[in-house]
């Protein structure tokens, strides 16, 4: 499967942000080839129809559609006619470093792998507000100066805050500032899910009590820490079974299961079917 990494030296320096019009951005894939990006992307559609899928979950496209892609998600276009819009993409460290907060992105609902939707549709007046910002960023890229990175960070922060606000309203989530431990738990999940599958792994790393983490998770996520861990493991397992050429044994090993039978039991309990039957079903879907 194709994989695309961020071109850190595109502008002659480590400027970890870029913006382009998808209809003319060099190397941008609009065909239906499955591919992965290893950075964050905010996609805003200004014209077109069809679908855009992340890990097999489709979003219908139209003017005003916004989709946020997270690192290592498998994506696929199925366009109907010409599609136009903006792609605003960046490395996470670009913002985390600037705001001196390694948990910065974890505070946004749009960057949560457990989010209820991969995208939403903007009202026209809100779309116009974002397009004005993108025009400013585009102009800044044409006239790069020594302080351009500061302007990019400010404009990106504005765009992300606006999109996160619109997204929360769309899915019925209120913006609520949570304790630091909540964001840290999510960050640790993002980084260590392949190695840590027990609540004890996380409370040890966070140096907090198990009961305290459980109360926080139920308060802010409406789930227990273990449910969140298992959901993340399910997402990865499904992605690997559906898109990779790895064997079930290899996937079980990567997710740190002691043996394949334990992985089989885990997967069937979560999905109602065995890893083998799920993989066969997904293979049949791709063939049709």
UniProtKB/TrEMBL annotation:
<dbReference type="InterPro" id="IPR020449">
    <property type="entry name" value="Tscrpt_reg_AraC-type_HTH"/>
</dbReference>
<protein>
    <submittedName>
        <fullName>AraC family transcriptional regulator</fullName>
    </submittedName>
</protein>
<dbReference type="GO" id="GO:0003700">
    <property type="term" value="F:DNA-binding transcription factor activity"/>
</dbReference>
<dbReference type="InterPro" id="IPR037923">
    <property type="entry name" value="HTH-like"/>
</dbReference>
<feature type="domain" description="HTH araC/xylS-type">
    <location>
        <begin position="183"/>
        <end position="281"/>
    </location>
</feature>
<dbReference type="GO" id="GO:0043565">
    <property type="term" value="F:sequence-specific DNA binding"/>
</dbReference>
<dbReference type="InterPro" id="IPR003313">
    <property type="entry name" value="AraC-bd"/>
</dbReference>
<dbReference type="Pfam" id="PF02311">
    <property type="entry name" value="AraC_binding"/>
</dbReference>
<dbReference type="InterPro" id="IPR009057">
    <property type="entry name" value="Homeodomain-like_sf"/>
</dbReference>
<keyword id="KW-0805">Transcription regulation</keyword>
<dbReference type="InterPro" id="IPR018060">
    <property type="entry name" value="HTH_AraC"/>
</dbReference>
<dbReference type="InterPro" id="IPR014710">
    <property type="entry name" value="RmlC-like_jellyroll"/>
</dbReference>
<dbReference type="Pfam" id="PF12833">
    <property type="entry name" value="HTH_18"/>
</dbReference>
<keyword id="KW-0804">Transcription</keyword>
<keyword id="KW-0238">DNA-binding</keyword>
């Amino acid at each position: 499967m194709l994989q695309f990494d961020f071109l850190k030296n595109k502008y002659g320096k480590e400027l970890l942000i870029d913006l382009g019009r998808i209809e003319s951005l060099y190397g941008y894939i609009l065909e239906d080839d499955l591919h992965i990006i290893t950075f964050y992307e905010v996609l805003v559609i200004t014209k077109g129809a069809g679908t855009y899928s992340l890990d097999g979950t489709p979003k219908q496209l139209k003017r005003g559609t916004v989709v946020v892609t997270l690192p290592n998600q498998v994506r696929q276009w199925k366009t109907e006619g010409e599609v136009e819009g903006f792609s605003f993409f960046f490395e996470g460290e670009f913002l985390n470093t600037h705001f001196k907060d390694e948990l910065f992105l974890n505070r946004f609902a749009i960057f949560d792998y457990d989010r209820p939707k991969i995208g939403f549709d903007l009202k026209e007046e809100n779309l116009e507000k974002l397009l004005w910002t993108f025009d400013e960023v585009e102009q800044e890229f044409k006239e790069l100066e020594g302080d351009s990175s500061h302007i990019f960070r400010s404009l990106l922060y504005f765009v992300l805050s606006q999109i996160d606000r619109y997204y929360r309203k769309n899915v019925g989530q209120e913006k609520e500032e949570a304790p630091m431990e909540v964001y840290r738990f999510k960050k640790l999940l993002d980084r260590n899910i392949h190695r840590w599958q027990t609540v004890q792994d996380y409370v040890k790393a966070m140096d907090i009590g198990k009961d305290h983490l459980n109360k926080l998770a139920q308060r802010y996520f409406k789930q227990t820490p273990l449910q969140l861990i298992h959901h993340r493991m399910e997402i990865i397992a499904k992605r690997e079974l559906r898109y990779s050429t790895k064997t079930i044994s290899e996937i079980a090993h990567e997710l740190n299961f002691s043996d394949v039978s334990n992985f089989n039991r885990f997967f069937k309990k979560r999905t109602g079917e065995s890893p083998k039957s799920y993989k066969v079903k997904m293979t049949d879907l791709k063939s049709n």
